[in-house]
Amino acid sequence: MKIAVLPGDGIGPEIVAQAVKVLEALRSDGLKIEMEHAHIGGAGYDAAQDPLPEATLKLAQESDAVLLGAVGGYQYDNLPRPMRPEQGLLRIRKGLGLFANLRPAMVYPELVNSSSLKPELVSGLDIMILRELTGDIYFGQPRGIRTLDNGERQGFDTMHYSESEIRRVAHVGFQIAMKRNKKMCSVDKANVLDTSMFWREIVTEVAKEYPEVELSHMYVDNAAMQLVRAPKQFDVILTGNIFGDILSDEASMLTGSIGMLPSASLDANNKGLYEPCHGSAPDIAGKDIANPLATILSVAMMMRYTFAREDIAQRIETAVRKTLQQGLRTGDIAEAGMPKIGCKAMGDAVVAAL
Ligand code: NAD
């Protein structure tokens, strides 16, 4: 297992160090894991005046998987756009051809009171949102701001999805559903958008190859409502780039804390980039108070999706759950009156539980 480790900025190095401890523990148990570190984001700019130094992209391309912390920091806010930390992230996703973004929204029984919804609505929640990551209105051309014949200015973007783009992400969705509860809801806006009508047609065609999976379709406005009304009705949600951007953030809040949410972005061969959903949290960087669990859970996803080691994925997830059961909490997930532990101590606790 060749893993490129890119800690990035802010709390990135602290949280990634805890995930690396977990990987080292697995290595001392006999797993053949190779890790190499490189810079990305502001750290890439500091080291090589580039948020994605060439050496970093090369390392990522030569590795089976990438573990990333987060990028961004106040000191980089005034750099010209191509030099800004988030460009490193966009470029590495593009450079690796990562088109399928997986974001689980799961509620741990111990954290059920952290959700913004009533416990009975979210207890046991386990949704997987699959968002297409490289197409849609975010990348469609032409786009821009133009002046019309009548002299009025107009902003415009173009939404499109090609058949191959829809097919490949639909296949990923059905394959994930096969490993879960075999239910997939494809979310679109087919009552208004031609792109969505086409999306629905192709997803329905691909579904014929997966007769065991129960496919449903839902309009995005209804999906946004159902996610806060009765979120447990969902298993896998498949959707395009813009709808997925919004729905995955909405779903993440059902779980209560951004510090618990892992993510995976996959290419056509299950090579992946794994990172927490949160950012670099510069407000708490260097204080040893960040929650490393989202990053550690991203390693579990890496074992499941890139290395096809469901056993190890479950071992890591069980270790995280045991740590929570022991009442151990970082500040972001502690209920009032609960003692809090630091980032390193949480990493050590997970390794011990492992
Ligand atoms: P953020 O996710 O970094 O932080 C939002 C809030 O959540 C902050 O109060 C932070 O302290 C808290 N938080 C985040 N992760 C936490 C953790 N693991 N444990 C405990 N608390 C945690 O979002 P932001 O403040 O909007 O952005 C900060 C920087 O991160 C910006 O430069 C932004 O561009 C960047 N960013 C990067 C990514 C990424 O690397 N994928 C994603 C989002 C934002």
Bound compounds, please? nicotinamide-adenine-dinucleotide
CATH topology of the largest domain: Isopropylmalate Dehydrogenase
Strand content: 15-25%
Full CATH superfamily name of the largest domain: Isopropylmalate Dehydrogenase
Helix content: 40-55%
Category from helices, strands and their pairing: alpha/beta
CATH architecture assignment of the largest domain: 3-Layer(aba) Sandwich
Which strand order does the major sheet show?
Answer: 2-1-3-12-11-4-5-10-8-9
| Helix and strand sequence | EHEHHEHEHEEEHEHEHEHEEHHH
At the first level of CATH, the class of the largest domain is Alpha Beta
Explained architecture:
α1 (12-28) packs across α10 (293-305), α1 runs parallel beside α12 and α8 (220-229) packs parallel to α9 (241-254). It is built from 12 helices and 12 strands. The protein has 354 residues and is an alpha/beta fold. The protein has 2 domains: 1-99 and 267-354, Isopropylmalate Dehydrogenase (3-Layer(aba) Sandwich), CATH 3.40.718; 102-257, Isopropylmalate Dehydrogenase (3-Layer(aba) Sandwich). A hairpin with a 5-residue loop joins β11 (262-266) and β12 (272-276). The model has no long low-confidence stretch (mean pLDDT 95). The longest helix has 17 residues, at 12-28. A 10-stranded mixed beta sheet has the order 2-1-3-12-11-4-5-10-8-9, with helices on both faces. Residues 11, 15, 70-73, 86, 89, 258-259, 275, 278-284, 290-291, 294, 332 line the site of nicotinamide-adenine-dinucleotide.
